């Protein structure tokens, strides 16, 4: 298997041990819960997490201005409720905890179970569920993908501003009405625990609408030039987004070189210009990946002054 | 070809057009020379560059505290002397220009030709040639690889401190006595202009000592666990480096996911501990890549107070 790993059973533990060597802001408690060394003494705490394989999400965003804790499951596997509970208990300073959950059955079940357990112990806990992936027809079943990182940043900023837990939840829920993402791949990811690819693609094929766990897309076709690919993805996005003025994130899937992500950026921006769509803020980089997948995703969200301020606010995370 | 590109002939131009959309600090002059919008008005200017395909090097380091210009050639191809000359003329404010050149025949020839041309026009120009890749036996022929990025940061810091051009050259030349790198790959890179891989590797093979242009390594063997790979690379490095206290850069080759780079970090640090070697500063990330190659390189350089201060100094480059 072409993976830079030791024992595949220790993938998560090894990864977090390595992270601690160069991310001096974080500690790991309970083996898999990444927390800030400098614990916040006031303001709502923001907790997220989920299966691993999406690095730098979520552990890389544990930092001043973003997350207070990331609960890390095994690769593409939800963390258990007891770990989420441990995170809540660790970060709660009395001002309550917001759980940012990507919409997958396991994550929702385990984070909500932890919420209930924490509430019986007297913690105030709110949840927001991110469902930004437009490739699923049924809105309630939409998966949480790269847009989740914008939620982390917005919620983290609001908490720094001493916004109450209830208000943060309200504002983030509001933001999510206009949060839409779609992704594509030219190479699937190889899952280190199995050595298998999430799906198989022919040498001349690409997959439109993939998920971040190697889920297949909505259609597959011959690989073509990036200008056409950009048009395809934007066509799908604007079946949902009605915005003419928005924040855009162009997200690499983990194995996509910077050079290609920049080429993607050029043609996405050109396609938007033809559509008379205005990008008020642009983020380009690897934010929410699928292991070594080669491809990219686009995320849009309506611009507003507070959100723009939040995204521009400093954070000690080197990954945002 | 599994590449997110449009016309392969426009790879470089498209990439720089894309970069400008999200790196608001830079401008592109003469089609391929990336310069700071906010031109420095005093202090030596630092110029680097070379073939493309190593992103974020070199254009991503054009920023306050690092480079004043990056001269970008086509993929894995040296830029021409006239472009280097244009860069020198653009950035020189009278305090002279340092050219940081990776040791490849084309780069050295073209940058030195530009130096001569600039000098006849009255510019003061110095050069430093980076030769950090230990896989070449003959020291003079050693290639410049990831260590070049540390040179950018050191030189950029010294220039900000108003160190004279001569002194910067002297200090950087001194630093290079202890600068050593070695790389490995589990997957070669695909060159977008040809659709070919730099070399072919079997499904169970890895290559030790690769170059950043898809050059083959010094030996090939069955892929093994990261602890063993880390030992191998460090064995090679410490045939050259005599340091017990150094700065370490663990560099992803472009297609390596963050998760694996963190696992690499754990086992490199464990191997160093067994050797009683002390890392005074650790950098982990994609700094000098080879397109979408999967693998990593290690770079060491002797610690000293000024170098550590330089590496810790702020820069507006989001890639360092």
If you had to describe this structure to a student in words, what would you say it looks like?
The structure is a homodimer of 320-residue chains. The first copy, chain A, has 320 residues and is α/β, with parallel strands linked by helices. Chain A folds into two domains: 13-177, Dihydroxyacetone kinase, domain 1 (Rossmann fold); 180-310, Hypothetical Protein Tm841, Chain: A,domain 3 (2-Layer Sandwich), CATH 3.30.1180. Chain A is 32% helix and 25% strand. Chain A has eight helices and 14 strands. Chain A has helices at 11-22, 81-91, 105-120, 147-160, 165-176, 226-237, 258-274, 305-312; strands at residues 26-29, 33-36, 45-52, 69-75, 97-102, 125-130, 180-187, 190-191, 196-197, 205-208, 219-222, 245-252, 278-285, 294-302. Chain A has a six-stranded mixed beta sheet with strand order 1-2-4-3-5-6, with helices on both faces. A six-stranded mixed beta sheet of chain A has the order 11-10-7-14-12-13, with helices on one face. The first copy, chain A, has a two-stranded antiparallel ribbon with strand order 8-9. In chain A, helix 2 (81-91) crosses helix 3, helix 4 runs antiparallel to helix 5 (165-176) and helix 6 crosses helix 7 (258-274). The longest helix of chain A has 17 residues, at 258-274. The two termini of chain A are 31 Å apart. In chain A, 58% of the residues are buried. The mean pLDDT of chain A is 96. The interface between A and B is large, with 54 and 54 residues.
